[in-house]
Amino acid sequence: MGSQGKKKVLELIYNNLDKLLLFVGLSLFFFGAFKIFSSQNEPEVEIIPLENSEKNIVVDVSGAVEKPGVYSLASHSRIKDALISAGGFNSKADKDWVSKNLNLAQVVDDGSKIYIPFMGQEKNILAQANENKEKVNINTASASQLETLPGIGPSLANKIISYREEKGPFQSLEDLMEVSGIGDKLFDNIKNNISLW
C-alpha cells in the first residue's frame, strides 16, 4: 500500500472517529452488562470448615485413671484419646491387663464406657463379664434378643428399641419402666435377666 493509500485510510478513520468511538464504547458497555448479569445467576458456594462438620461423641471413662468422668470427644476418636482426656492411667492401674485386653487404637462409639481395672481386679471383671454375657443388654439388644425375656413380645421389643433410639441409651435398669407397657410386675420378672453393658 503506497503513501496515498495510507493517507486515505487515515482520513477515513479520522472522519469516522466519532462513529468508531461510539461503536467501541457500546461494545464495552454491553460486554460489562453481560458480565454483571451473568455473575448474579451463578450460585454462591458456601465453604464449611471440616472441623465444624464433625459431631462430637460422649464417652464414660472410669476405673484406674487420673480423672474418671464423662468426656466429649471428636467423632472417630480412639480409646487412647479418651484415656488422654481422663489424664491417663493412675499408679494403681493394671497395665498388664490393659496391654493384653484393650486395643488403644480402637475407634470409640458414642455412649461407650471404658473401664480400666485396678491391679488384682482382673478376676472380678472376667466373672462380671461372663455374667453379663448371659444377660440381655437392653441398650444394644435386637428385637429377637429382647423377645427372649419373659413377658416381652414383638410389640414391647419394638417399643424398647424405639425408646432408646429417641431418648438415647438407658442409664439404669429402672429406666426400662418408662417404656409404655412395662410396669413394676413385668420389670421384677426380667430385672435379673437384663444388663446395661
Could you explain how this protein is built, in words?
This protein is mainly α. It folds into three domains: 3-40; 47-119, Ubiquitin-like (UB roll) (Roll); 135-197, DNA polymerase, domain 1 (Orthogonal Bundle), CATH 1.10.150. It contains nine helices and five strands, in the order H-H-H-E-E-H-H-E-H-E-H-H-H-E. It has helices at residues 3-15, 17-40, 50-53, 79-85, 95-101, 122-134, 143-146, 154-167, 184-190; strands at 56-63, 69-74, 113-116, 136-137, 194-195. The protein has a three-stranded mixed sheet with strand order 2-1-3, covered by helices on one side. Strand 1 (56-63) and strand 2 form a beta hairpin. The chain is elongated and about 115 Å long. The chain starts with a helix and ends with a strand.
State the gist of this model.
With 197 residues, the protein is mainly α. The chain is 47% helix and 11% strand.
Number of helices: 9
Order of helices and strands: HHHEEHHEHEHHHE
Rg, alpha carbons: 36 Å
Low-confidence stretches: 45-53
Tell me the helix content: 40-55%
Distance between the termini: 98 Å
The CATH class of the largest domain, by name, is Alpha Beta
CATH topology of the largest domain: Ubiquitin-like (UB roll)
- Cα shape: elongated
Q: What is the number of E strands?
A: 5
Q: Note the main sheet.
A: 3 strands, mixed
The order of strands across the largest sheet is 2-1-3
Mean pLDDT, nearest integer? Answer: 80
Task: Kindly estimate the percentage of residues that lie in beta strands according to DSSP.
Answer: 5-15%
Number of domains: 3
**Structural class designation:** mainly alpha
User: What is the CATH architecture descriptor of the largest domain?
Assistant: Roll
